[in-house]
Amino acid sequence: MSILTDLQSVTKALQAENRTVLDVRDLFDEVIKTYPQTKNRLGENASIIHDNVFESAVQKILKGSEEELTPDESVKVTGLRHGSSTMVEETRTGEERDADAGLSLAEKALKRRRLVSTTTSKSAFMDLHFIVSTSNMCERLFSETGYGLNSRRMRTLPSNFKTQMFLRTNKTFWGMADINRIVTSEEDKEQNDTYIELVE
Q1: Is the pTM of this model over 0.85?
Q2: Could you give the number of structural domains in the chain?
Q3: For a surface tag, which of 8, 13, 106, 108 has the fewest beta carbons within 10 Å of its beta carbon?
């Protein structure tokens, strides 16, 4: 039962949309450490990884260990170089290790990079937290489209459906204030057009 509890905590942690490539690797490494038999499926060279060289490079950049990049890894992330940004070095103290006893497997994995200092170093790469590490967002979108295009809405025009899905997916970027502003501007435009027609 404890095995299922451990793996469930990892599965739930992987569902977070803000999970980075480094987070996922930490989670997998913790699972491998606890259950070595999973290495073939979750290891750095597992078949589920599309490009292990690129992934390794991204992990090193996110950790602030760019000096450890191999020549092949440097080539893979050439397009991600960007001026200079600030990276924070993360380490783990003995006290944190002692406090791990009551944590789930996922919490232990993600706690390893807790900040214990404010030491920073310049990075030649852009912030790579935007790189999506799992397909969760796509799967959620597929589910939402299934709910949106049900038997009662089969006559919805494709263009309208795409617009609805676009707005729903990006709902954090707009709100009622934006709608009111657009409606108001459209009404003002119509009034101006009517006035021009009357004058002419």
Answers
A1: no
A2: 2
A3: 8
Domain with 28, as residue range(s), is 2-130
Strands (E), 95-165: 120-125
Query: Cα–Cα distance between 176 and 36 in angstroms, integer?
Result: 51
Tell me how far the alpha carbon of residue 141 is from its chain's centroid.
14
In this structure, what token pair is assigned to residue 143? 């589910």
Q: Are residues 18 and 101 in the same domain?
A: yes
Question: SS3 of 86, please?
Answer: strand
Q: How far apart are CA 104 and CA 81, in angstroms?
A: 36
- Read off the pLDDT of residues 13-28 as tens digits, 9 standing for 90 and up: 888 878 888 898 989 9
H-helix segments, 77-114: 94-98, 105-111
Measured at the CA of 73, the angle between CA 71 and CA 75, to 5 degrees, comes to 70
Token readout for 30 is 């913790």
Burial class (CB in 10 A: 0-12, 13-18, 19+), 169: middle
